[in-house]
Write a structure and sequence with these properties.
The structure holds two protein chains of two kinds. By secondary structure, chain A is an all-alpha fold. Chain A contains 15 helices and two strands. Chain A has a two-stranded antiparallel ribbon with strand order 1-2. The chains are: A mainly alpha, B alpha+beta.
Protein backbone atom coordinates (compact mmCIF):
# COMPACT_ATOMS: atom_id res chain seq x y z
CA UNK A 1 0.00 0.00 0.00
CA UNK A 2 1.49 3.28 -1.05
CA UNK A 3 2.11 5.85 1.63
CA UNK A 4 -0.64 8.41 1.71
CA UNK A 5 1.87 10.90 2.89
CA UNK A 6 3.40 10.93 -0.56
CA UNK A 7 7.09 11.29 -1.40
CA UNK A 8 9.82 8.99 -0.03
CA UNK A 9 11.45 10.40 3.10
CA UNK A 10 14.46 12.70 2.88
CA UNK A 11 17.09 12.08 5.53
CA UNK A 12 19.00 15.07 6.80
CA UNK A 13 21.65 12.97 8.50
CA UNK A 14 24.31 12.30 5.82
CA UNK A 15 25.30 8.89 7.21
CA UNK A 16 21.69 7.69 7.25
CA UNK A 17 21.14 9.06 3.74
CA UNK A 18 24.32 7.30 2.53
CA UNK A 19 23.26 3.94 4.00
CA UNK A 20 19.66 4.29 2.88
CA UNK A 21 20.72 4.93 -0.71
CA UNK A 22 22.49 1.57 -0.71
CA UNK A 23 20.32 -0.45 1.69
CA UNK A 24 16.92 1.20 2.19
CA UNK A 25 16.29 0.02 5.74
CA UNK A 26 15.48 3.51 6.98
CA UNK A 27 12.99 4.09 4.16
CA UNK A 28 11.47 0.74 4.99
CA UNK A 29 11.06 1.55 8.68
CA UNK A 30 9.69 4.99 7.81
CA UNK A 31 7.16 3.50 5.38
CA UNK A 32 6.06 0.42 7.33
CA UNK A 33 6.22 1.64 10.94
CA UNK A 34 5.87 5.40 10.78
CA UNK A 35 3.68 6.70 7.99
CA UNK A 36 2.01 3.32 7.44
CA UNK A 37 -1.71 4.17 7.09
CA UNK A 38 -3.60 2.23 9.76
CA UNK A 39 -7.37 2.15 10.36
CA UNK A 40 -8.22 4.84 12.91
CA UNK A 41 -10.69 2.70 14.87
CA UNK A 42 -8.57 -0.03 16.51
CA UNK A 43 -9.65 -1.22 19.94
CA UNK A 44 -7.35 -2.76 22.55
CA UNK A 45 -7.67 -6.21 20.99
CA UNK A 46 -5.32 -4.89 18.31
CA UNK A 47 -2.51 -4.65 20.87
CA UNK A 48 -1.87 -8.36 21.05
CA UNK A 49 0.14 -8.79 17.85
CA UNK A 50 2.72 -6.34 19.15
CA UNK A 51 2.55 -7.87 22.64
CA UNK A 52 3.15 -11.37 21.23
CA UNK A 53 6.15 -10.07 19.26
CA UNK A 54 7.67 -8.58 22.41
CA UNK A 55 7.08 -11.87 24.27
CA UNK A 56 8.84 -13.76 21.47
CA UNK A 57 11.90 -11.52 21.78
CA UNK A 58 11.78 -11.84 25.58
CA UNK A 59 11.66 -15.65 25.33
CA UNK A 60 14.64 -15.72 22.96
CA UNK A 61 16.76 -13.39 25.10
CA UNK A 62 16.05 -15.22 28.38
CA UNK A 63 16.42 -18.57 26.59
CA UNK A 64 19.86 -17.75 25.23
CA UNK A 65 21.24 -16.85 28.66
CA UNK A 66 19.63 -19.94 30.21
CA UNK A 67 21.26 -22.13 27.54
CA UNK A 68 24.66 -20.83 28.67
CA UNK A 69 24.19 -22.59 32.02
CA UNK A 70 21.96 -25.49 31.06
CA UNK A 71 23.32 -29.03 30.51
CA UNK A 72 21.34 -31.05 27.93
CA UNK A 73 22.30 -34.37 29.47
CA UNK A 74 19.90 -36.69 31.27
CA UNK A 75 22.30 -37.06 34.21
CA UNK A 76 22.96 -33.32 34.59
CA UNK A 77 19.90 -31.48 33.28
CA UNK A 78 17.80 -31.39 36.45
CA UNK A 79 20.71 -30.30 38.64
CA UNK A 80 21.84 -27.68 36.13
CA UNK A 81 18.38 -26.08 36.27
CA UNK A 82 18.56 -26.09 40.08
CA UNK A 83 22.02 -24.53 39.83
CA UNK A 84 20.56 -21.80 37.61
CA UNK A 85 17.93 -21.22 40.30
CA UNK A 86 20.31 -21.15 43.27
CA UNK A 87 23.87 -20.33 42.20
CA UNK A 88 23.86 -18.46 38.90
CA UNK A 89 23.55 -14.68 39.39
CA UNK A 90 20.00 -13.63 38.47
CA UNK A 91 19.49 -17.17 37.18
CA UNK A 92 16.23 -17.51 39.10
CA UNK A 93 14.91 -14.39 37.38
CA UNK A 94 15.92 -15.58 33.90
CA UNK A 95 14.28 -18.95 34.48
CA UNK A 96 11.08 -17.56 36.01
CA UNK A 97 10.81 -15.02 33.19
CA UNK A 98 11.25 -17.80 30.64
CA UNK A 99 8.83 -20.21 32.36
CA UNK A 100 6.12 -17.62 33.01
CA UNK A 101 6.89 -15.97 29.68
CA UNK A 102 5.80 -19.12 27.83
CA UNK A 103 2.38 -18.90 29.49
CA UNK A 104 2.02 -15.20 28.75
CA UNK A 105 3.21 -15.63 25.16
CA UNK A 106 0.46 -18.21 24.65
CA UNK A 107 -2.08 -16.00 26.44
CA UNK A 108 -1.27 -13.09 24.12
CA UNK A 109 -1.43 -15.31 21.04
CA UNK A 110 -4.75 -16.87 22.08
CA UNK A 111 -6.31 -13.41 22.58
CA UNK A 112 -4.85 -12.41 19.19
CA UNK A 113 -6.53 -15.48 17.62
CA UNK A 114 -9.89 -14.78 19.30
CA UNK A 115 -9.65 -11.21 17.98
CA UNK A 116 -9.13 -12.63 14.48
CA UNK A 117 -12.10 -14.98 14.89
CA UNK A 118 -14.48 -12.28 16.11
CA UNK A 119 -13.57 -9.59 13.60
CA UNK A 120 -13.12 -11.95 10.63
CA UNK A 121 -9.46 -11.07 10.15
CA UNK A 122 -8.94 -14.37 8.30
CA UNK A 123 -11.17 -13.43 5.36
CA UNK A 124 -10.07 -12.33 1.89
CA UNK A 125 -7.56 -10.92 1.19
CA UNK A 126 -5.90 -12.06 4.45
CA UNK A 127 -6.18 -15.87 4.15
CA UNK A 128 -2.42 -16.44 3.85
CA UNK A 129 -1.78 -14.02 6.71
CA UNK A 130 -4.10 -16.16 8.86
CA UNK A 131 -2.56 -19.45 7.71
CA UNK A 132 0.95 -18.20 8.52
CA UNK A 133 -0.43 -17.43 11.98
CA UNK A 134 -1.62 -21.03 12.35
CA UNK A 135 1.88 -22.19 11.35
CA UNK A 136 3.30 -19.95 14.09
CA UNK A 137 0.86 -21.49 16.60
CA UNK A 138 1.96 -25.02 15.66
CA UNK A 139 5.64 -24.07 15.90
CA UNK A 140 4.99 -22.48 19.29
CA UNK A 141 3.33 -25.64 20.56
CA UNK A 142 6.23 -27.81 19.40
CA UNK A 143 8.77 -25.40 20.91
CA UNK A 144 6.90 -25.15 24.21
CA UNK A 145 6.54 -28.93 24.46
CA UNK A 146 10.26 -29.52 23.86
CA UNK A 147 11.21 -26.72 26.23
CA UNK A 148 9.09 -28.28 28.95
CA UNK A 149 11.10 -31.51 28.61
CA UNK A 150 14.44 -29.80 29.25
CA UNK A 151 14.34 -29.48 33.09
CA UNK A 152 14.06 -33.29 33.12
CA UNK A 153 11.58 -33.42 35.99
CA UNK A 154 8.90 -36.07 36.37
CA UNK A 155 6.35 -34.18 34.28
CA UNK A 156 9.00 -33.38 31.65
CA UNK A 157 9.82 -37.04 31.27
CA UNK A 158 6.29 -38.42 31.39
CA UNK A 159 4.84 -35.62 29.28
CA UNK A 160 7.46 -36.42 26.65
CA UNK A 161 6.62 -40.13 26.93
CA UNK A 162 2.89 -39.60 26.50
CA UNK A 163 3.18 -37.11 23.64
CA UNK A 164 5.81 -39.04 21.66
CA UNK A 165 3.73 -42.20 22.20
CA UNK A 166 0.92 -40.50 20.27
CA UNK A 167 2.88 -41.24 17.11
CA UNK A 168 2.75 -44.97 17.89
CA UNK A 169 -0.93 -44.71 16.92
CA UNK A 170 0.14 -44.38 13.27
CA UNK A 171 -0.65 -47.72 11.61
CA UNK A 172 2.27 -50.01 10.57
CA UNK A 173 5.20 -47.58 10.98
CA UNK A 174 4.10 -46.05 14.31
CA UNK A 175 6.53 -47.95 16.54
CA UNK A 176 9.52 -47.27 14.24
CA UNK A 177 8.61 -43.59 14.07
CA UNK A 178 8.58 -43.39 17.87
CA UNK A 179 11.96 -45.16 18.16
CA UNK A 180 13.28 -42.72 15.57
CA UNK A 181 11.93 -39.73 17.51
CA UNK A 182 13.46 -41.04 20.74
CA UNK A 183 16.79 -42.13 19.27
CA UNK A 184 16.46 -45.14 21.54
CA UNK A 185 13.88 -47.44 23.08
CA UNK A 186 12.43 -44.94 25.51
CA UNK A 187 12.62 -41.22 26.24
CA UNK A 188 16.25 -40.91 27.33
CA UNK A 189 19.43 -38.92 26.87
CA UNK A 190 19.35 -38.91 23.03
CA UNK A 191 15.79 -37.58 23.19
CA UNK A 192 16.80 -34.80 25.59
CA UNK A 193 19.75 -33.85 23.36
CA UNK A 194 17.71 -33.50 20.21
CA UNK A 195 14.86 -31.71 21.96
CA UNK A 196 17.37 -29.16 23.24
CA UNK A 197 18.79 -28.64 19.74
CA UNK A 198 15.30 -28.19 18.30
CA UNK A 199 14.12 -26.02 21.18
CA UNK A 200 16.99 -23.67 20.39
CA UNK A 201 16.30 -23.76 16.64
CA UNK A 202 12.52 -23.41 16.41
CA UNK A 203 12.20 -19.92 17.95
CA UNK A 204 14.29 -18.56 15.08
CA UNK A 205 12.04 -20.38 12.63
CA UNK A 206 9.14 -18.66 14.42
CA UNK A 207 10.90 -15.31 13.93
CA UNK A 208 11.13 -16.04 10.21
CA UNK A 209 7.45 -16.97 9.94
CA UNK A 210 6.50 -13.90 12.01
CA UNK A 211 8.43 -11.81 9.46
CA UNK A 212 6.36 -13.36 6.66
CA UNK A 213 3.21 -12.79 8.75
CA UNK A 214 4.09 -9.09 9.04
CA UNK A 215 4.97 -8.80 5.33
CA UNK A 216 1.61 -10.34 4.44
CA UNK A 217 -0.09 -7.99 6.92
CA UNK A 218 1.46 -4.93 5.32
CA UNK A 219 0.25 -5.83 1.81
CA UNK A 220 -3.41 -5.07 2.55
CA UNK A 221 -2.98 -3.49 5.96
CA UNK A 222 -4.69 -4.43 9.20
CA UNK A 223 -8.30 -5.42 9.52
CA UNK A 224 -10.28 -3.30 12.01
CA UNK A 225 -13.27 -3.67 14.36
CA UNK A 226 -15.73 -2.69 11.60
CA UNK A 227 -14.22 -5.16 9.13
CA UNK A 228 -14.53 -2.71 6.23
CA UNK A 229 -11.58 -1.49 4.16
CA UNK A 230 -10.27 2.07 4.61
CA UNK A 231 -11.45 4.13 1.66
CA UNK A 232 -9.11 7.08 1.99
CA UNK A 233 -6.93 9.21 4.27
CA UNK A 234 -9.92 10.17 6.42
CA UNK A 235 -10.20 6.51 7.53
CA UNK A 236 -6.58 6.05 8.64
CA UNK A 237 -3.93 7.48 10.91
CA UNK A 238 -0.15 7.00 10.61
CA UNK A 239 1.10 4.00 12.59
CA UNK A 240 3.50 6.21 14.51
CA UNK A 241 2.81 7.87 16.89
CA UNK A 242 -0.83 6.77 17.16
CA UNK A 243 -0.46 3.03 17.44
CA UNK A 244 3.09 2.90 18.77
CA UNK A 245 1.67 4.76 21.78
CA UNK A 246 -1.47 2.62 22.01
CA UNK A 247 0.57 -0.60 21.68
CA UNK A 248 3.05 0.75 24.22
CA UNK A 249 0.29 1.39 26.72
CA UNK A 250 -1.31 -2.04 26.25
CA UNK A 251 2.10 -3.68 26.45
CA UNK A 252 2.86 -1.92 29.74
CA UNK A 253 -0.37 -3.14 31.31
CA UNK A 254 0.31 -6.66 30.01
CA UNK A 255 3.88 -6.64 31.34
CA UNK A 256 2.71 -5.45 34.78
CA UNK A 257 0.48 -8.52 35.06
CA UNK A 258 3.34 -10.66 33.76
CA UNK A 259 5.70 -9.18 36.35
CA UNK A 260 3.22 -9.96 39.15
CA UNK A 261 3.41 -13.60 38.13
CA UNK A 262 7.20 -13.62 37.66
CA UNK A 263 7.91 -12.07 41.06
CA UNK A 264 5.07 -13.22 43.28
CA UNK A 265 3.72 -16.50 41.92
CA UNK A 266 6.17 -17.91 39.39
CA UNK A 267 5.05 -21.49 39.98
CA UNK A 268 1.31 -20.80 39.96
CA UNK A 269 0.95 -21.98 36.36
CA UNK A 270 3.28 -25.00 36.62
CA UNK A 271 3.09 -28.51 38.01
CA UNK A 272 4.85 -29.04 41.38
CA UNK A 273 5.75 -32.62 40.42
CA UNK A 274 8.18 -31.27 37.82
CA UNK A 275 10.47 -30.38 40.73
CA UNK A 276 10.97 -34.13 41.24
CA UNK A 277 13.78 -35.49 39.05
CA UNK A 278 12.71 -37.70 36.14
CA UNK A 279 12.28 -41.36 37.07
CA UNK A 280 11.64 -43.72 34.14
CA UNK A 281 10.42 -46.44 36.51
CA UNK A 282 7.67 -44.51 38.32
CA UNK A 283 4.83 -42.61 36.71
CA UNK A 284 3.38 -39.61 38.55
CA UNK A 285 -0.23 -40.01 39.63
CA UNK A 286 -1.50 -37.83 36.86
CA UNK A 287 0.09 -36.55 33.68
CA UNK A 288 -1.12 -33.13 32.61
CA UNK A 289 0.41 -30.71 30.11
CA UNK A 290 0.76 -26.98 30.72
CA UNK A 291 -2.52 -25.03 30.70
CA UNK A 292 -2.12 -23.74 27.16
CA UNK A 293 -2.23 -27.27 25.73
CA UNK A 294 -5.03 -28.62 27.95
CA UNK A 295 -7.97 -28.15 25.50
CA UNK A 296 -6.16 -30.19 22.86
CA UNK A 297 -5.21 -32.83 25.44
CA UNK A 298 -8.90 -33.04 26.39
CA UNK A 299 -9.86 -33.63 22.74
CA UNK A 300 -7.26 -36.40 22.56
CA UNK A 301 -8.69 -38.16 25.60
CA UNK A 302 -12.34 -37.52 24.79
CA UNK A 303 -12.23 -40.11 22.03
CA UNK A 304 -11.98 -43.67 23.31
CA UNK A 305 -9.98 -44.96 20.32
CA UNK A 306 -6.27 -44.08 20.41
CA UNK A 307 -5.75 -43.39 16.68
CA UNK A 308 -9.00 -41.45 16.31
CA UNK A 309 -8.11 -39.40 19.38
CA UNK A 310 -4.75 -38.45 17.89
CA UNK A 311 -6.36 -37.56 14.55
CA UNK A 312 -9.02 -35.44 16.31
CA UNK A 313 -6.38 -33.58 18.30
CA UNK A 314 -4.30 -32.69 15.25
CA UNK A 315 -7.44 -31.87 13.22
CA UNK A 316 -8.61 -29.42 15.86
CA UNK A 317 -5.70 -27.16 14.88
CA UNK A 318 -5.47 -28.25 11.23
CA UNK A 319 -9.06 -27.11 10.84
CA UNK A 320 -7.96 -23.53 11.40
CA UNK A 321 -6.11 -23.62 8.06
CA UNK A 322 -9.48 -24.07 6.34
CA UNK A 323 -11.26 -21.40 8.35
CA UNK A 324 -11.20 -18.72 5.59
CA UNK A 325 -13.18 -21.09 3.36
CA UNK A 326 -15.42 -22.60 6.05
CA UNK A 327 -16.84 -19.18 6.86
CA UNK A 328 -19.25 -18.42 4.03
CA UNK A 329 -20.36 -15.01 5.28
CA UNK A 330 -19.19 -12.06 3.21
CA UNK A 331 -19.21 -9.78 6.23
CA UNK A 332 -15.97 -9.81 8.21
CA UNK A 333 -16.76 -8.28 11.58
CA UNK A 334 -19.13 -9.84 14.10
CA UNK A 335 -20.27 -6.30 14.87
CA UNK A 336 -22.57 -6.72 11.85
CA UNK A 337 -23.37 -10.41 12.34
CA UNK A 338 -26.28 -10.51 14.81
CA UNK A 339 -26.28 -14.29 15.25
CA UNK A 340 -22.65 -15.34 14.82
CA UNK A 341 -21.46 -12.70 17.30
CA UNK A 342 -22.89 -14.90 20.08
CA UNK A 343 -21.22 -18.05 18.84
CA UNK A 344 -17.65 -16.74 19.06
CA UNK A 345 -17.93 -16.33 22.86
CA UNK A 346 -19.68 -19.71 23.00
CA UNK A 347 -16.69 -21.25 21.20
CA UNK A 348 -14.30 -19.56 23.63
CA UNK A 349 -16.28 -20.96 26.60
CA UNK A 350 -16.32 -24.37 24.91
CA UNK A 351 -12.51 -24.33 24.63
CA UNK A 352 -12.17 -23.19 28.26
CA UNK A 353 -14.40 -26.08 29.38
CA UNK A 354 -12.27 -28.42 27.26
CA UNK A 355 -9.22 -27.09 29.08
CA UNK A 356 -10.94 -27.71 32.41
CA UNK A 357 -11.65 -31.30 31.35
CA UNK A 358 -8.04 -31.71 30.20
CA UNK A 359 -6.81 -30.78 33.66
CA UNK A 360 -8.75 -33.60 35.34
CA UNK A 361 -8.52 -37.38 35.04
CA UNK A 362 -11.03 -38.69 32.49
CA UNK A 363 -13.45 -40.08 35.05
CA UNK A 364 -17.05 -39.43 36.07
CA UNK A 365 -18.75 -36.47 34.48
CA UNK A 366 -15.53 -35.23 32.85
CA UNK A 367 -15.90 -37.95 30.19
CA UNK A 368 -19.31 -36.86 28.81
CA UNK A 369 -18.40 -33.21 29.31
CA UNK A 370 -15.19 -33.57 27.27
CA UNK A 371 -17.09 -35.45 24.56
CA UNK A 372 -19.85 -32.86 24.26
CA UNK A 373 -17.38 -29.96 24.15
CA UNK A 374 -15.18 -31.79 21.62
CA UNK A 375 -18.24 -32.38 19.47
CA UNK A 376 -19.24 -28.73 19.74
CA UNK A 377 -15.73 -27.57 18.74
CA UNK A 378 -15.92 -29.46 15.47
CA UNK A 379 -19.61 -28.60 15.01
CA UNK A 380 -18.76 -24.90 15.26
CA UNK A 381 -16.22 -24.96 12.46
CA UNK A 382 -17.61 -27.66 10.18
CA UNK A 383 -21.37 -27.08 10.34
CA UNK A 384 -22.36 -23.89 12.15
CA UNK A 385 -19.92 -21.58 10.38
CA UNK A 386 -20.64 -22.63 6.75
CA UNK A 387 -24.41 -22.82 7.31
CA UNK A 388 -24.79 -19.64 9.34
CA UNK A 389 -22.95 -17.58 6.71
CA UNK A 390 -25.67 -18.54 4.22
CA UNK A 391 -28.74 -17.94 6.36
CA UNK A 392 -27.72 -15.06 8.61
CA UNK A 393 -28.84 -11.58 7.54
CA UNK A 394 -26.02 -9.16 8.39
CA UNK A 395 -26.69 -5.62 9.58
CA UNK A 396 -26.02 -2.82 7.06
CA UNK A 397 -22.36 -1.86 6.87
CA UNK A 398 -21.42 1.79 7.47
CA UNK A 399 -20.26 3.74 4.38
CA UNK A 400 -16.75 4.24 5.80
CA UNK A 401 -14.66 3.95 8.94
CA UNK A 402 -14.59 7.72 9.43
CA UNK A 403 -18.32 7.90 9.00
CA UNK A 404 -18.96 5.18 11.59
CA UNK A 405 -16.45 6.57 14.08
CA UNK A 406 -17.65 10.18 13.82
CA UNK A 407 -21.34 9.26 13.95
CA UNK A 408 -20.73 7.23 17.07
CA UNK A 409 -18.92 10.14 18.65
CA UNK A 410 -21.73 12.55 17.75
CA UNK A 411 -24.46 10.15 18.87
CA UNK B 1 4.90 -26.15 -24.19
CA UNK B 2 4.34 -23.18 -26.48
CA UNK B 3 6.13 -23.60 -29.78
CA UNK B 4 7.78 -20.18 -29.45
CA UNK B 5 9.77 -21.46 -26.46
CA UNK B 6 11.21 -24.40 -28.35
CA UNK B 7 14.68 -23.41 -29.51
CA UNK B 8 15.75 -23.83 -33.12
CA UNK B 9 16.75 -27.39 -33.93
CA UNK B 10 14.25 -28.92 -31.51
CA UNK B 11 11.75 -31.61 -32.48
CA UNK B 12 8.44 -31.09 -34.19
CA UNK B 13 5.60 -29.36 -32.36
CA UNK B 14 4.30 -31.47 -29.45
CA UNK B 15 6.94 -34.21 -29.70
CA UNK B 16 9.34 -34.68 -26.82
CA UNK B 17 12.67 -33.14 -27.66
CA UNK B 18 16.17 -34.05 -26.63
CA UNK B 19 16.00 -31.07 -24.30
CA UNK B 20 12.83 -32.48 -22.66
CA UNK B 21 14.62 -35.79 -22.17
CA UNK B 22 17.58 -34.04 -20.57
CA UNK B 23 15.25 -32.06 -18.30
CA UNK B 24 13.45 -35.18 -17.07
CA UNK B 25 16.62 -37.25 -16.73
CA UNK B 26 18.58 -34.59 -14.85
CA UNK B 27 15.54 -33.75 -12.72
CA UNK B 28 15.14 -37.40 -11.77
CA UNK B 29 18.85 -37.66 -10.94
CA UNK B 30 18.62 -34.55 -8.79
CA UNK B 31 15.65 -36.02 -6.91
CA UNK B 32 17.53 -39.30 -6.30
CA UNK B 33 20.56 -37.32 -5.18
CA UNK B 34 18.41 -35.24 -2.86
CA UNK B 35 16.98 -38.34 -1.22
CA UNK B 36 20.44 -39.89 -0.95
CA UNK B 37 21.68 -36.78 0.85
CA UNK B 38 18.60 -36.58 3.08
CA UNK B 39 18.84 -40.19 4.23
CA UNK B 40 21.96 -39.89 6.45
CA UNK B 41 20.34 -36.93 8.18
CA UNK B 42 17.16 -38.89 8.86
CA UNK B 43 19.05 -42.02 9.80
CA UNK B 44 21.23 -39.97 12.13
CA UNK B 45 18.26 -39.71 14.48
CA UNK B 46 17.90 -43.49 14.85
CA UNK B 47 19.32 -45.22 17.97
CA UNK B 48 23.13 -45.14 18.07
CA UNK B 49 25.35 -48.21 18.34
CA UNK B 50 26.00 -47.73 22.06
CA UNK B 51 22.27 -47.37 22.68
CA UNK B 52 21.65 -50.57 20.75
CA UNK B 53 24.49 -52.31 22.62
CA UNK B 54 22.63 -51.77 25.88
CA UNK B 55 19.58 -53.48 24.50
CA UNK B 56 20.10 -56.76 26.43
CA UNK B 57 20.12 -57.40 30.16
CA UNK B 58 20.75 -60.59 32.11
CA UNK B 59 18.82 -61.15 35.33
CA UNK B 60 19.26 -63.72 38.09
CA UNK B 61 15.70 -64.65 39.06
CA UNK B 62 16.63 -66.98 41.93
CA UNK B 63 16.04 -64.44 44.73
CA UNK B 64 12.48 -63.66 43.58
CA UNK B 65 10.14 -65.45 46.01
CA UNK B 66 6.93 -67.04 44.82
CA UNK B 67 4.18 -64.44 44.71
CA UNK B 68 6.51 -61.47 44.38
CA UNK B 69 7.82 -59.46 41.47
CA UNK B 70 10.76 -57.24 40.58
CA UNK B 71 11.29 -54.39 38.14
CA UNK B 72 14.44 -54.27 36.02
CA UNK B 73 15.41 -51.56 33.56
CA UNK B 74 15.74 -52.68 29.98
CA UNK B 75 16.14 -50.26 27.07
CA UNK B 76 15.19 -47.42 29.43
CA UNK B 77 11.88 -49.07 30.22
CA UNK B 78 10.75 -51.08 33.23
CA UNK B 79 10.42 -54.85 32.79
CA UNK B 80 8.32 -56.73 35.31
CA UNK B 81 9.45 -60.21 36.31
CA UNK B 82 6.79 -61.94 38.39
CA UNK B 83 7.17 -65.29 40.12
CA UNK B 84 3.56 -66.37 39.94
CA UNK B 85 1.74 -68.49 42.50
CA UNK B 86 -0.17 -71.59 41.31
CA UNK B 87 -3.45 -69.70 41.93
CA UNK B 88 -2.30 -66.81 39.78
CA UNK B 89 -1.28 -69.19 37.00
CA UNK B 90 -4.62 -70.95 37.20
CA UNK B 91 -6.51 -67.64 37.16
CA UNK B 92 -4.61 -66.58 34.05
CA UNK B 93 -5.13 -69.91 32.28
CA UNK B 94 -8.82 -70.23 33.09
CA UNK B 95 -9.93 -67.01 31.41
CA UNK B 96 -12.00 -67.47 28.28
CA UNK B 97 -10.35 -65.77 25.30
CA UNK B 98 -13.70 -64.24 24.34
CA UNK B 99 -13.59 -62.19 27.54
CA UNK B 100 -10.32 -60.50 26.58
CA UNK B 101 -10.09 -57.19 24.67
CA UNK B 102 -6.78 -58.40 23.18
CA UNK B 103 -7.16 -62.20 23.08
CA UNK B 104 -3.96 -64.10 23.84
CA UNK B 105 -3.44 -67.34 25.75
CA UNK B 106 -1.45 -67.27 28.97
CA UNK B 107 0.67 -70.11 27.62
CA UNK B 108 1.91 -67.99 24.73
CA UNK B 109 2.89 -65.19 27.10
CA UNK B 110 5.18 -67.37 29.24
CA UNK B 111 7.12 -68.98 26.40
CA UNK B 112 10.74 -67.98 25.88
CA UNK B 113 12.52 -67.69 22.54
CA UNK B 114 13.60 -71.34 22.78
CA UNK B 115 9.86 -72.23 22.90
CA UNK B 116 10.15 -73.46 26.46
CA UNK B 117 7.08 -72.73 28.61
CA UNK B 118 7.65 -71.62 32.20
CA UNK B 119 4.25 -70.67 33.63
CA UNK B 120 5.75 -69.61 36.98
CA UNK B 121 7.69 -66.76 35.33
CA UNK B 122 5.83 -63.91 33.73
CA UNK B 123 8.13 -61.39 32.02
CA UNK B 124 6.51 -58.30 30.53
CA UNK B 125 7.41 -54.75 29.56
CA UNK B 126 5.88 -52.73 32.41
CA UNK B 127 4.50 -50.01 30.23
CA UNK B 128 0.78 -49.37 29.93
CA UNK B 129 -0.26 -49.67 26.29
CA UNK B 130 -2.50 -46.64 26.60
CA UNK B 131 -0.06 -43.75 26.89
CA UNK B 132 3.07 -45.28 28.35
CA UNK B 133 2.70 -45.00 32.13
CA UNK B 134 4.13 -47.61 34.50
CA UNK B 135 1.32 -49.64 36.11
CA UNK B 136 1.35 -50.39 39.85
CA UNK B 137 1.29 -53.90 41.33
CA UNK B 138 4.89 -55.01 41.77
CA UNK B 139 5.48 -53.80 45.31
CA UNK B 140 3.68 -55.32 48.27
CA UNK B 141 0.83 -52.97 49.13
CA UNK B 142 0.44 -51.68 45.58
CA UNK B 143 -3.08 -51.76 44.16
CA UNK B 144 -3.25 -54.74 41.80
CA UNK B 145 -6.65 -54.01 40.26
CA UNK B 146 -9.73 -56.22 40.13
CA UNK B 147 -7.90 -59.00 38.30
CA UNK B 148 -4.96 -59.38 40.68
CA UNK B 149 -2.37 -58.19 38.16
CA UNK B 150 -1.52 -54.53 37.65
CA UNK B 151 -3.35 -51.25 37.88
CA UNK B 152 -2.36 -48.17 35.90
CA UNK B 153 -2.83 -45.03 38.00
CA UNK B 154 -2.95 -42.69 35.00
CA UNK B 155 -6.20 -43.64 33.37
CA UNK B 156 -7.34 -46.69 35.32
CA UNK B 157 -6.39 -49.56 33.01
CA UNK B 158 -6.43 -52.95 34.77
CA UNK B 159 -4.31 -55.95 33.84
CA UNK B 160 -4.65 -59.59 34.94
CA UNK B 161 -2.03 -62.00 36.29
CA UNK B 162 -0.83 -62.58 32.74
CA UNK B 163 -0.39 -58.83 32.11
CA UNK B 164 -3.35 -58.82 29.75
CA UNK B 165 -5.63 -55.80 29.51
CA UNK B 166 -9.02 -56.48 31.11
CA UNK B 167 -10.59 -53.11 31.76
CA UNK B 168 -9.88 -49.45 30.96
CA UNK B 169 -8.67 -47.43 27.98
CA UNK B 170 -5.49 -49.38 27.10
CA UNK B 171 -5.94 -51.18 23.76
CA UNK B 172 -3.41 -54.01 24.13
CA UNK B 173 -1.84 -56.42 26.59
CA UNK B 174 1.47 -55.39 28.12
CA UNK B 175 4.15 -56.53 25.69
CA UNK B 176 6.20 -59.67 26.26
CA UNK B 177 9.85 -58.99 25.33
CA UNK B 178 12.06 -61.63 23.73
CA UNK B 179 13.75 -63.52 26.55
CA UNK B 180 15.68 -66.72 27.01
CA UNK B 181 16.35 -68.73 30.15
CA UNK B 182 19.98 -69.85 29.89
CA UNK B 183 19.49 -71.86 33.09
CA UNK B 184 16.65 -72.20 35.61
CA UNK B 185 17.75 -69.04 37.40
CA UNK B 186 19.30 -66.90 34.68
CA UNK B 187 17.25 -65.07 32.05
CA UNK B 188 18.49 -62.87 29.23
CA UNK B 189 16.03 -60.19 28.12
CA UNK B 190 16.29 -58.68 24.63
Amino acid sequence: MASQHGAPPVFNNKVIAWIDHRLPIFSYIEKEYHTFPTPRNFNYFWNFGAIATVMLVLMIVTGIVLAMNYQPNAALAFDSVERIMRDVPSGWLMRYMHMTGASFFFAAVYIHIIRGLYYGSYKAPRELLWMLGVVILLLMMATAFMGYVLPWGQMSFWGATVITNLFSAIPVVGESVVTWLWGGFAVDNPTLNRFFALHYLLPFVIVAVVALHVVALHVHGSNNPLGIDPKGPQDTVPFHPYYTIKDGFGLTVFLIIYAIFVFFMPNALGEPVNYVPANPLATPNEIVPEWYLLPFYAILRAIPDKLSGVIAMFSSIGLLFLLPWLDTSRVRSCTFRPIYKWFVPVLVIDVLVLGYCGAHPPEGYFVPLARVTTFYYFFHFLILLPVLGKIERPLPLPPSIADAVLTKKAG
Amino acid sequence: MASSSIPAGAGAHGDPTRRDFLMVASGAMAAVGGIAVAWPFINNLNPAADTLALSQVEVNVKPIAVGSAITVKWRGKPVFIRHRTPEEIKAAEDVKLSELPDPETDNKRVTDTAKKVRPEWLIIVGVCTHLGCVPLGNKPGDPKGEYGGWFCPCHGSQYDTSGRIRKGPAPKNMAVPDYLFSSDSLVKIG
